[in-house]
Write a structure and sequence with these properties.
The structure is a single chain. The chain is an alpha+beta fold. The protein folds into two domains: 138 residues, Double Stranded RNA Binding Domain (2-Layer Sandwich), CATH 3.30.160; 201 residues, Thrombin, subunit H (Beta Barrel). The protein has eight helices and 22 strands. Helix 2 packs across helix 8.
């Protein structure tokens, strides 16, 4: 009798839910699997940030899900910025770790973003040569004359999200003719650098580049290991290595005007963006649209709370085929009984997971999920 009562209670609960799972008719591709499918939630028209809630809940359930505000970001795994400088009319030097294994490398020239070709990438010495399909107005000459105490200037685009996109200039001296652990491949200098300076020129008072800014001693690592924060311990790839790479891999040696002032130098130093993308052919796009209101008189919420009425989730394959549509509301038939917009979004995310699990995670006879 007790089991029957519990079963009746569960049935009544299901019937009282806003929407039955059966109403969510989503036609996921039959070859979808956890390994080959990601969910991209379009947040380009989402003032309440519901796309982020949906992405987080789907991720909590073990799916790959990302909320993006710009549709050009679909498929983007990682994005980073660094610095490069011209060494001929269309060739630039940067760090190997700036370009990495990126699918696209872009150089910011004025207001234009110019896609560059990676001519040579040498991870062992952290140098890369890239080429742009435009003519650059100025280029640096190179030197291997590294001496302790030499005055140096560093130019680059550090931490652009906070510090802005204007080229930054810092000054210091060559502190040591060797790098960390006494390597002769690098030298130490005192001019301050930040993330984003990587690949930038370190040049002397004759505007000859003697090194390429590449790294600094980690403050966090040093403090955790030895209890102190090092000051101005920064490193550059040595000019002799730079000259060797340039002589062997810069095929177009047509020179533009040679840098002879700080004003010239700024016109020969550029921000570089690298992006790595993944195949999105098997992925799912979720578009969200809704109207909303907040905190009417008949609510138990004591804070400003938003309610959606309704919210529409439309699911597509990445080639634009619509595979499902879900419409929900914060109101369960009464203005006195409602969920916040985010609770409604979590509710829908759960049922998207249920529908997807039937396709992507079939059960074996033992009940074990197959991933």
């Amino acid at each position: 009798m007790k089991k029957i009562l519990l079963l009746l209670f569960f049935i009544i609960y299901l019937c009282s839910c806003q929407t039955s799972l059966d109403l969510y008719d989503i036609d996921f591709p039959g070859d979808s699997t956890i390994a080959n499918t990601a969910f991209w939630i379009d947040g380009s028209d989402d003032p309440l940030g519901i796309s982020a809630v949906v992405a987080q809940k789907l991720s909590d359930y073990g799916l790959k899900a990302v909320a993006v505000s710009d549709r050009e970001m679909f498929g983007l795994i990682s994005s980073s910025t660094g610095t490069a400088f011209a060494v001929s009319s269309n060739m630039l030097v940067t760090n190997s770790h700036v370009v990495g294994s990126a699918d696209t490398v872009t150089v910011i020239i004025g207001t234009d973003e110019i896609e560059a070709d990676v001519v040579h990438n040498e991870p062992d010495v952290d140098l890369a040569i890239i080429k742009v399909p435009v003519e650059l107005p100025y280029s640096f000459k190179l030197s291997d004359d590294v001496e302790k105490g030499l005055h140096v200037t560093v130019m680059g685009y550090p931490y652009t999200e906070i510090m802005g996109r204007e080229c930054k200039i810092t000054e210091g001296i060559v502190s040591s003719e060797t790098g960390a652990y006494d390597t002769i491949l690098k030298f130490q200098f005192s001019a301050p650098i930040q993330p984003g300076n990587s690949g930038g020129p370190v040049f002397n008072d004759d505007y000859s580049v003697i090194g390429v800014a590449t790294e600094k001693v980690s403050d966090i690592h040093a403090f955790s290991e030895d209890g102190f924060i090092p000051q101005n311990a920064n490193y550059a790839v040595n000019g002799c290595l730079l000259q060797f790479v340039a002589e062997n891999f810069i095929f177009d040696k047509d020179s533009s005007s040679v840098v002879d002032s700080l004003e010239d130098a700024e016109k020969a130093v550029f921000m570089v963006k690298s992006e790595e993308r993944t195949d999105i052919n098997n992925d799912i796009l979720i578009k969200i649209s809704y109207t909303y209101d907040f905190n009417t008189a008949n609510t138990a919420y004591s804070r400003t709370t938003y309610f959606v009425n309704p919210i529409l989730f439309t699911l597509y394959t990445m080639d634009g085929i619509k595979i499902g549509e879900i419409e929900e509301s914060s109101y369960a038939g009464s203005s006195y009984i409602r969920e916040s917009a985010y609770e409604t979004a979590e509710y829908v995310a759960l049922h998207i997971f249920y529908a997807y699990a039937d396709i992507a995670m079939p059960c074996t006879n033992s009940g074990e999920k197959i991933y």
